């Protein structure tokens, strides 16, 4: 029976590497796969999935208006692999769930669980609700604990706590950290706050 899978992680856990390996494994057995990644804007078209190890591969892109139904899937496709799945809408996740269970096409999604504020991405919230199989991909914080959350840092290395969920361009960067490190800047702010601790 086909299922909807969600493999989630913080940033830099190797999601795209594992996706490309999964595609290779299917194709090695003579099975066709269809790869998707998020469009950087609202238009769908051609995109690239690239892993930090240097592998890259063309993929179709999805935008908010992409409909994941049977017509989208070329005949003979054995499996759908979706990168940046946090950017799916909850309606698209529902379509993918139907596609797996009614259309019989397994759907494997990789994505970030939460954003830099520690809040859900719409696609991830829906996938955590509907996916038949969940798997957390582990990565390590600089302090050695498990990284489970993404910190946005500005050009000066300071944590950014407010702003758009997704920035295209700009100088901000991200670091996957453990919750303890994520909140450590809060404590620093409190210590700096005049009068708070006398
Ligand atoms: Zn840490």
Verbal overview:
- By secondary structure, the protein is α/β, with parallel strands linked by helices.
- The protein has a domain at about 5-135: P-loop containing nucleotide triphosphate hydrolases (Rossmann fold, 3-Layer(aba) Sandwich), CATH 3.40.50.300.
- The protein is about 25% helix and about 30% strand.
- The protein has 4 helices and 12 strands; from the N terminus they run E-H-E-E-E-E-H-E-H-E-E-E-E-E-E-H.
- The strands form 3 sheets. It has a 7-stranded mixed beta sheet, with helices on both faces.
- It is globular and about 50 Å long.
- The model is unreliable at about 190-198 (pLDDT under 50).
- Bound molecules: zinc ion.
- The site of zinc ion (ZN) has 7 residues, from helix 4.
Number of helices: 4
Instruction: Examine the secondary-structure arrangement and name the CATH architecture of the domain at 4-137.
Output: 3-Layer(aba) Sandwich
Termini, distance in Å?
A: 63 Å
Strand content: 25-35%
- Uncertain residue ranges: 190-198
Strand order of the largest sheet: 3-4-2-5-6-1-7
| Alpha-beta content class | alpha/beta
Shape: globular
Q: In the CATH scheme, what's the topology name of the domain at 4-137? A: Rossmann fold
Please outline the major beta sheet: 7 strands, mixed
Helix percent reads: 10-25%
H-E string:
EHEEEEHEHEEEEEEH
The whole-number mean of residue pLDDT values reads: 88
Bound small molecules, by name, code or SMILES, are: zinc ion
Cα gyration radius (Å): 19 Å
CATH homologous superfamily placement of the domain at 4-137? P-loop containing nucleotide triphosphate hydrolases
Number of strands: 12
What is the CATH level 1 assignment of the domain at 4-137? Alpha Beta
